[in-house]
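Q: Predict the bound structure with S-adenosylmethionine.
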Amino acid sequence: MSQTELYAVEIRGEAGTRRSGRKRPDGIATTNVVLSASIGDNASVFRDILRLFVPEGSTVADVTWGKGAFWKFVSDNLYTVLPSDLKTGVDCRNLPYDDASIDALVLDPPYMEGLFRREIGHMAGSGSHAAFREHYSDGKATDHDVGAPKYHDAVVDLYLKAGQEARRVLRNYGVFIVKCQDEVSANTQRLTHVELINAWAKDFYCKDLFVVVRPNKPGIVRLLTQEHARKNHSYFLVLIKRDQEYPKRIRPPKGRKVKTETGVNPS
Ligand SMILES: C[S@@+](CC[C@H](N)C(=O)[O-])C[C@H]1O[C@@H](n2cnc3c(N)ncnc32)[C@H](O)[C@@H]1O
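A: Predicted complex:
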């Protein structure tokens, strides 16, 4: 039985095969469901997202692999995983995959403007926070070409360009999993998740959104007056690539196999 089927059985608390449909009179009342918000780490939320949205056997490209921490609770050999990162020489804005060849793509680039600075000394995460900087970025300063977006706009620019590339390599109805966090930049509230969802609306349907709340209590350095809530949450967005022939459809018509460059998708 597949991981997804096992999950369905777990939820129903009985043995048997999975039936179609979301709810039935003979279903059970249960609190054993995936929730939209949780306190804890990314890895357990990521496991649940895969379980809900990405069928076993799928080809999943994690294009900002970092240390692969998202995958801590995902069993080996459920998926064909393609890890890459700028640190390994692959830019998420220029992926070495064919058009429509990928079933799901994971994107978690540096999420805050403090990681996009011209000089290393000005980047977020100095001194005892060096491990943070090392983990959340490629640890290098950013060259700003004349006219290129800066600060928060540089953050969004990287997401959007990576999103264009995701749109190219994902098959129709493929799953685009994006980790992001809002930020206050230049004393202005920037709701990154809203900016991304809106910017991608034509190409991707935002099927779900998960809020991850930090278990510890973050502080603020050099505080005089607090003007905005200190953020202690981040998001996973789950987006579905639209078929541009049928842009309003959010899932393939029943029974229709979705063609990829390499074959037929496993869902
Ligand atoms: C937040 S970390 C990713 C953490 C990762 N999800 C994990 O589970 O360990 C951001 C990663 O994005 C990478 N990165 C930054 N710019 C990139 C780019 N243009 N293309 C690909 N990776 C990039 C960094 O090297 C860093 O490893």
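A: The chain has one domain: 36-266.
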